[in-house]
Amino acid sequence: MTLNALDRSDAPGMDQLTLSSVPLVPEMRLFLAEDAIVLWARLEAAAGAPLPAPYWASAWVGGQALARYILDHPESVAGRSVLDLASGSGIVAIAAAMAGATDVIATEIDPNAIVAIRANAEANGVVVTPLEADVLDGNGQDAQVVLAGDVLYDESVADRVRPFLVRAAGHGALVLLGDPDRGHLPAGSLDLVATYPVPVVGTPEDALLRRTNVFTLRHDPSESPLGSAAR
User: Fold this and answer.
1) Is residue 129 packed enough to be buried (19+ CB in 10 Å), middle (13-18) or exposed (0-12)?
2) pTM above 0.90, yes or no
3) Number of structural domains, the chain?
């Protein structure tokens, strides 16, 4: 099922969304779920089939941290082309556009997320190009900056994301990673550039987290392209 419009109260489940400010990025507003689990159940009921979890309906803390960093350090993206990986709500891509990136592509494989990104970008008065595609076998599509906010949430996903980020860095991109350390960070080659407290209000998965970080990924030709997880 693809959502027709996020702000339509008669669209299935859409009365569960509210245009809300984001704790770490109060200058931004996003269409967020009051309860993502209830939203997921209602979307699946309307579709009559299993659907991906609506990650796009929550502001994950790794993405919030990366968005905050970008807005506080606009020189990281200003005047540069940007690819935001697994963009979800679009929070990181929107921050890049707000900070002066020349071209922002937000990738997602969930068609509902594509609609959410478009609606959230419009709500914040910026231009972001949603791309419904799995780009993880590539190297960043010649983007000068690759952004990854809270994309290492699961080991099977992280096993594909880590080598993608290594390839993007090797291709010359500045790679910025927002992550509260869910246990799947790449081993080595990470430089910590910022740490933020986790907002009190967040997803259930974030309830036990206390801080969230932003890293840069250095290109190390000697590092394994598999980018195994730090333990």
Assistant:
1) middle
2) no
3) 1
pLDDT exceeds cutoff 70 at 120: yes
Residue 185 lies in a domain: yes
Q: Has residue 184 been placed in a domain?
A: yes
CA distance 87 to 193: 21
Residues facing residue 25 across a β-bridge: 22
**Domain hosting residue 128, numbered range:** 60-217
pLDDT in tens, 154-208: 899 999 999 999 999 999 999 999 999 888 998 778 999 999 998 755 555 555 6
The DSSP H or E segment spanning 189 is none
Residue type (1 letter), 12: P
Non-local (6+) Cβ contacts of 52 within 8 A are: 109, 110, 112
* Domain presence at residue 130: yes
